[in-house]
Amino acid sequence: MMSPMKVQRQFPRWKTVKPLLGWHLPRFDGVDRKLQRCITIQDLRTLATHRVPKAVYDYVDGAANEEISLGRARETFSRIEFRPRVLRDVSSVDLSTTILGRSSDLPIIFAPTGYTRMMHYSGEIGIATVATQHNLVYSLSTMGTTSAQELGDAVSQSRRWFQLYVWRDREQTRSFVAQAKDAGFEALILTVDTPVAGQRNRDIRNGLTVPPKINSKTFFNMATKMKWWFNVLTTPALEFATFRQFTRPLSEIAATFFDASVTFEDLAWLKSIWGGPIIVKGIQSVADAKMLAKMGVDAIVLSNHGGRQLDCGVVPLELLPEVVAAVGKKMEIYIDGGVMSGKDILAAIGFGADAVLIGRAYLYGAMAGGMAGVEKCIEILAQEMKTTMQLTGVTSIAEFTSEYVNLRQN
Asked: Is 342 helix (H, G, I), strand (E, B) or coil?
């Protein structure tokens, strides 16, 4: 029988223990350690809850009514099943793609989001700057806190799209289109899922309505976020840039936001006055996708407005394969809603999407850490996409097809 091997013992020494613990003395170098420690979009989401008022966070995080649509979208992504191929050289991975005929470093489009400077004072210009640094498309909302001209002047090299609601006043709509064209916007996004505004219960309870009806509870919660308040008070006033020219009360202007009478004829009119690429956002049926393909639009976005309009609506990811089969060769198809990771993006690509719009994901980053938080969001998504592609045996976005992804049925 072999005798046990003798191991020389020694007293623990701090210089050998310290590297295992990862501890260090506090540093005062201006680096946001909490942001640095975020490794998922969910981490950014959690950090955001500590850095902005509840009403602001709920505006981003919430959805319509009981928020069933948003919950179903996220649940659907949780049923993604990847089907890897092995023994392939995945030492080099290309995450780039082509969107509307131009190269993009990632298959990601920054979705239009309203009132962005409420989330962080750098607002649309700060976020568009990050998008430009990564060669990504940034979309400016009609309901933004920065005008088309201001964004064009500040980030002149950006790929920028302008999101439009057709107002009841068609001449005002024409004016918005002209402003976007003059400011050098590349494409027009027509949002079509808002004939009326959806009911967002969180916003109503918090008083974030048009016009605002902030209650005392919401006000005092805002007051606890001193850094957020300081930034609000020491930067230009929060406002919808679109409404600067109006002298009427916001309550009256609100009645003209959306037009319940908009039809396909209005789309034909927009095509005639815009003269450039048009993307139609808010498609939730194969029939409408076919109609738009016949009209010659350049792209559509399968979207239920992130669950913020009609609750219990269609889940875009589930609809995607049907739409791709019907019109995928006639125009580009994008998707949004519930995207919280790089693997979510790849799943959509695998089912036939040409690109994916992100909204909440980058706004979580903005609330958590401003421009650095948006940068962190892109870093997280890119790393997750790269790792997922390598583990599935794919080296380019173009190769990632339905061969590598499946949607499990519970």
From this structure: helix
- Report the relative pairing of strands 299-302 and 332-335 from DSSP bridges: parallel
Contact 355, 107 (CB under 8 A): yes
pLDDT beyond 80 at 248: no
Contact yes or no for 306/217 (Cβ under 8 A): no
33-407 fold: TIM Barrel (3.20.20)
Structure confidence at residue 23 (pLDDT)? 59
Q: Which residues are catalytic?
A: 305
CB atoms within 10 A of CB 173: 21
Q: Are 105 and 137 within 8 A, CB to CB?
A: no
Q: Helices marked H in 262-392 — which ranges?
A: 264-274, 286-295, 316-327, 342-350, 360-392
Quick one: average pLDDT of 14-32? 67
* 372 pLDDT higher than 80: yes
Position 195 scores a pLDDT of: 85
The pLDDT of residue 198: 87
Instruction: State which H helix or E strand residue 132 sits in.
Output: helix 123-133
Task: Provide the pLDDT for residue 264.
Answer: 94
In three-state form (DSSP H/G/I as H, E/B as E, the rest C), the secondary structure along 197-242 is: CCCCHHHHHHCCCCCCCCCHHHHHHHHCCHHHHHHHHCCCCCCCHH
Does residue 100 have a pLDDT over 80?
A: yes
Q: What is the pTM of this model?
A: 0.92
Angle at 357 between CA 351 and CA 358, to 5 degrees: 120
Written as one letter, the residue type at 161 is: W
Give backbone dihedrals phi and psi of 331, rounded to 5 degrees, phi first. Answer: -165, 165
- Are 348 and 97 contacting, i.e. CB atoms less than 8 angstroms apart? no
